[in-house]
Amino acid sequence: MTCPSPLHIDKELILFGASGDLAKEKLYPALFDLFMRDEGVRVTGFGRTAFSHDDFRTLVREAVSAKRAQATPEDIETFSSCFRYYSGTYDRGGMKALSEALRGTPKKSLFFYLAIPSEYGLIEAIIDGLAGNDLLGKTTSLALEKPFGSDLASAKQLNALLARHLDESQIYRLDHYLAKDMVRDLFALRFANPIFDPVWNSRFIRDITIEIWEDEGIRKRAEYYERSGAIRDMLQNHALELLAFTTMDQPKSQDPEDIHHEKIRIFRKLRLFGNEKLENISIGQYDGYRKEPLVASDSLVETRASIRLEIDTPRWRGIPITIASGKKMPKKTTDITVTFRKPEHTLWEASGCALAENRIRINIQPENEIRLRLNSEFSTEKKCAYPADLRFAFADNAYSFKEPYDNALHDFFAKDQGTFLNAQEILLSWKFIDSVLAVIEPKRREILEKY
Ligand code: BG6
What we know:
Elements: E1 12-16, H1 21-36, E2 42-47, H2 53-67, H3 73-80, E3 83-87, H4 96-102, E4 110-114, H5 120-132, E5 141-145, H6 152-165, E6 171-174, H7 181-191, E7 205-213, H8 222-247, H9 256-267, E8 270-272, E9 281-285, E10 304-311, E11 321-326, E12 333-340, H10 346-349, E13 359-365, E14 369-379, E15 384-393, H11 404-413, E16 420-421, H12 423-440, H13 444-447, E17 448-450
Parallel strand pairs: 1-2, 1-4, 2-3, 4-5, 5-6, 7-11, 9-17
Antiparallel strand pairs: 6-16, 7-12, 8-10, 9-10, 10-11, 12-13, 13-14, 14-15
6-O-phosphono-beta-D-glucopyranose (BG6) binds near residues 176, 214 and 233.
């Protein structure tokens, strides 16, 4: 494995926030994985902190060693030689050195990645600095991370800023949940297996639940979290994206536009269940949250939230769909549960046999498995059937999972938009979330539960 020769660089990743947590914890280990699969790129770090090239390479080596225990020092050393670093302020003047370093690299080979706190002013300064130094061409790519705004108005403002300098096809908005292997497998489960489509509707399905639980608290992210809370941090993006993948119609093709089109049809039709208001929402705050450093002692920010909604389409109308997420829960787990209606049939009722509902549970993490509950054990004595789970665990089938950031970076370099979000779906998901927050705000103090 070697670095791409400076004379033949067809992909150059320019990373803003190169010494930040996201870069160290996720991006460098993932870039290392790609490098080991012969998908290496040259990386130019840029940040306000001053580092020499060597200091930066040391930081990269430490980050990879911490996350990839099996990697050899030689591989990590070679990998880190693909990195260089420039420091400066996030403005036109500050990015001069960067633009000089990138002179000669074709625009289509430039991949900018904003691994920085998602603050409008910061993003604006960077985009303006890049444009002012003639670094944004018609074929340059730019990736950025959620959150994309904090409500509909700010998401619109962010979209408008990006659209001033880049075409939609050049913007890669990452929600890392869509880069998880199991979420991609959900696409296969639904659309590569015709047995599911005929029953995937309100006639057969009773309800759907999407739960993203985490055992950790907010770690050191109080500043961000106090402005965000669980609804903005997890439900607006990760949970709604899982919902869209679970409920959307089959796209015409695997082209990103067709996938986006189907997701957008779902987002357009979201509403609180039965149009009821507060009954569909619950929010909570974990014990000890207010004692976390930098958290207000009277904070009303929710660290757990659940919303019962409905998709107002012929396929889904009337079916309650719950999306929920919380921190400091007993276990870290993400599940999509689709519960089917009970059969109405005297064959079982006559013997007093209460059948269980069929249920598919897709565990996105950590087990990476699909369970299908079937009434499969028949007792001739009781004239009843008892449920058992049919379990398919990807891990038992020599299926090798990739980290979400491996997938995301791979797709970014391949200029494949399928994993990324488009401008419109973000606006529509915020529109729904804004309407939910408008219901919560006047009652927040009363309804916030302790847990
Ligand atoms: C991030 C949220 O988007 O996702 C975090 O900001 C959360 O609060 C994280 O902890 C969860 O991601 P994962 O992949 O660990 O489930």
